[in-house]
Specification:
Elements: H1 19-47, H2 60-92, H3 99-121, H4 135-157, H5 166-185, H6 199-233, H7 240-254, H8 269-281, H9 283-296, H10 301-306, H11 308-330, H12 333-339, H13 343-373, H14 380-413, H15 418-455
Helix pairs in contact: 1-2, 1-3, 1-13, 1-15, 2-3, 2-6, 2-13, 3-4, 4-5, 5-6, 6-7, 6-11, 6-13, 7-9, 8-11, 9-11, 11-13, 13-14, 14-15
Amino acid sequence: MGEPNLSTEVTEKLPSSNPTAKAFTLTSALWFAAATSFGMIGAGYLIAPDFLANIEYIHFGRVRPMHINAVLFGFVTPGLLAAAFYYFPRLLRTELFSHKLGVFSAIFWNITVAAGMIGISLGYTQGREYAELPWPVDIMVVISFSLVVLNILLTIRKREERVLYVSIWYTTAAIILTSVTYCLGNVIWKPDTGALVGIPDAILLWFYGHNIFGLLLTPMGLGVAYYVLPIATRSPLWSHSLSLIGFWSLIIVYTHIGTHHLLQVPVPTWLKTISIVDSVAMVIPVMIVLINLWYTIKGKLGEIHADIGAKFVLTGTIYYFFVNIQGSMMALPHVQRITHFNNWVVGHAHIGVLGFAGIMALGGLYFILPRITGKPLYSKFLADVQYWLVLIGVTGFAVVLTIVGLIQGNSWYNGEALYRTLPMIQPYYILRASLGAFIMLGAYIGLYNIIRSLYFNRGAAT
């Protein structure tokens, strides 16, 4: 794993057009709009249980997993892949192995996500968190990841650049490891249930569930950051050694922390202890990465502010700091007595998936759009509007859901009845829905801006 100087991009012999990156860019933008729409429906039910008259296909029990899976596999992952399919050829100094395969994989990816949404909406689900998709869709997901893995590995194989930059390692590891952990976590060898029995199923589920973030979204998001920030600031990466240590410490430490979701159930004590220790130890890879990135851009905030993609990415690194410090703290048993099984965890998840990985994905999209179209963004103003809408929405989510979680946790800890708690948190649910509207509006503005940038960008407004 080497450290090419990224102060200038590698563009020799590489055309600016990149149909694979374009296809995944459009995929991400479309599903971001859809996912936030699902989320708003769910938020409506939390305010008014009879919202939309509990229409069977979109009642809360179905629209919530639709929202989660659309965010994970429809919006964030394709957005990060779009950036990866752009920077892989440049860092490897070779064209992508097959754009036909790349475009086909994007089309098949969309079919897969749509099939998952339809299946859940019709009531076909495995009923396991982050593993709700029915078995036939699980197989489609594995095929989707396999197509991407094939294209990436064959591109690496025929590369002209012999030294592999850290972004290549992060993204390649993410796709390969997730192809395996998805099979394990969704128990695809048991089509009838898609689950094991009892505690072993819970352990396996949370090994997979947490590693969707830790071994997919996190390394792919960091791969984008390691590529975008040095180029935007025209600075070489601050430390090659830290990039090595950060990569391997993330792979080693993160893998074992999923069981901290099960501290209050009868799983083996040694496994709980490992999960707690590794959760606290996550401070090591997180701070290594952030020190490396922040020192790379030291004194270059003006350049960051001038590049909307880099501004998204830098904001994502800040959320990365907060979500991991919070996660390490939440793994402590005494803290978890108050924070677990309530909206504190929901707030934590939104900071991680949307605040860190989602904003990284948006940063990657806005960074590559001018480069794959050969034109400026259709509207930098709209991109800035989306930035502030998402920033306000996610930050508000973090604050509101943390407050609600503390109210719920303390009420339950003190033995207060549920009917006393609900009136206290009702105003916060209304505020949460209002903040969600900011994010949804940002998603639709971004969709419009991205479509115009890709296909109808004649005037290139500023």
